[in-house]
Amino acid sequence: MCRLRMQVLVQIVKLAQKNGMKGDKGDWKEFLKAFDTKFGSSMSDPAKRTPDVLRAFLLTFKERDDINFFAKTMKSHSNHEQVKQHLKSQDEESPEQMLVRLTLEHPRYGMAYSFPSHEEDWFVSKLGKKFKMKPSNTLLAVDCEMVLCEDGTEALVEICVVDRDLQIKLHEFVKPQKQIADYRTQITGVSAKDLDGITCSVKDIQNSMRRLLCRGEILVGHSLSNDLKAMKVDHAKVIDTSFIYKYGDESTRKRPSLNDLCKARQCLFLETVLGYELRKKGASHNCADDACAAMKLVLAKIENGSNDVIPVTQRDVPENEKGKLLVHRIPQGLPSKELHQVIGGDFTIETQVSKKGPGDKYSAFAIFNSPVEALNAYVNLQGDEEKDSCGRPQKLVSLKLESGLTTTICVRKMSPDSSSEVSAKRSYPIEALEGMSKRSKIDQNAEVSQGSSVDLHYEIERLKKLVTE
């Protein structure tokens, strides 16, 4: 417990440093100069100071706003650390607590769930009075939809919460305080008409969540951190289905989508996780369906011990898309015609508009006359090759700006390498393949050899259908 308190104190003092906060004795370094005549501010890292020094600094703050800031920050950090410490100390853990632990131990948890919960308009939930003796295993799943505001930020517009029995506990449309630039109806399913007469605010949703989470319930969701940010709710006991399931291909850093998880085949069994497609391609989201799907995925892990490894879903790329290369991370202000400096061949440029509003980078398609020309241009590009988060090959290409500085842009193929594409490549001129590394050719041969096992899976599926018929 002492170690826990020390960690929380360190985090609070670091946050005070970052925000330039000052008490009666000035900021952190000014306080050290006055408080510690021996070392002064030369040892300013809060982690190297004793708890007494950290407490003494915090006690120099007398303003109510500062005290509330520290109290809220301490509550947030304390909640998260208590959950982690408690889960580590348990000899036996329930399946629900195990999934909480797996979420907290995920490499991306720290970055995804680092919230500005010290801000005034955030709500920090409680763990519940009986947390240390008997943590709650009650599950609640949530899904939120967000619209794009004129200032480039996102705002909560719809929320649905369901319980373990898939009964709806909360379903509301929310009126954003900011002007809406794009309802993203094709994604959210929400239009301006849905908000006619709606007065529910984010604050109202926080009050509802306060009641639902008052006993330290476990909150479930897919990429749940996005929903928590939209609600401005900091809750420590979470299960993120994008963390507890993963793709089997280690080359992809992408987290599986909710739809892919619902219909994906497990690597070790010829069965689907849930057995249905959540939504057809191009269909908008449904808040209630998505919340139920997240809950079902967690229950599948708890009740059936579903394998967490999901095969990478290879989507078919339309023929007209194969003649393109995606160029992204292009600095704003750089004319798209400058791309002809680094990409060879005859192509036209189609600039893409970001759904998240203007930023410091933009993307564009380089459109060739045929897939063969697009592939030749990619192969001849000079740059280090890697895979993007979906496992698609891309090259990091250096580009010199008019200012004399050099920037790096990414040029990506439209689909992952496949065995069919490998055979097609072999029919291309030898000079088009000279830029390929020996390693990539070996990898392609390995992909061809794996084709028989893929065919076997399809054959088994075909036979299973015949039996059932």
Can you walk me through this structure?
- With about 475 residues, the chain is an alpha/beta fold.
- Helices cover about 35% and strands about 20% of the residues.
- The protein has helices spanning about 1-20, 30-35, 50-60, 65-90, 95-105, 110, 185-190, 200-210, 225-230, 240-245, 260-265, 285-305, 370-380, 420-425, 430-435, 440-450, 450-469, and strands at about 125, 140-150, 155-165, 170-175, 180, 220, 235, 240, 245, 310, 325-330, 345-350, 360-370, 385, 395-400, 405-410.
- The strands form four sheets. Strands 2, 3, 4, 5, 6 and 8 form a six-stranded mixed β-sheet that branches. It has a six-stranded antiparallel β-sheet with strand order 12-13-11-16-15-14. Strands 1-7 form a two-stranded parallel ribbon.
- Helix 1 packs across helix 3 and helix 1 (about 1-20) crosses helix 4 (about 65-90).
- The longest helix is centred in the first third of the chain and has 26 residues, at about 65-90.
- The chain is globular and about 70 Å long.
- Mean pLDDT is about 80; it is low at about 265-270, about 420-460 and about 460-469.
Summary of the model, kept short:
With 469 residues, the chain is of the alpha/beta class. It has helices at residues 2-18, 28-35, 51-58, 64-89, 95-105, 109-112, 185-188, 202-212, 224-231, 241-244, 258-263, 287-304, 371-379, 419-425, 430-433, 438-449, 451-468; strands spanning 123-124, 139-149, 154-163, 168-173, 180-182, 218-221, 233-234, 238-240, 246-247, 309-310, 324-331, 347-352, 361-368, 384-387, 393-400, 406-412.
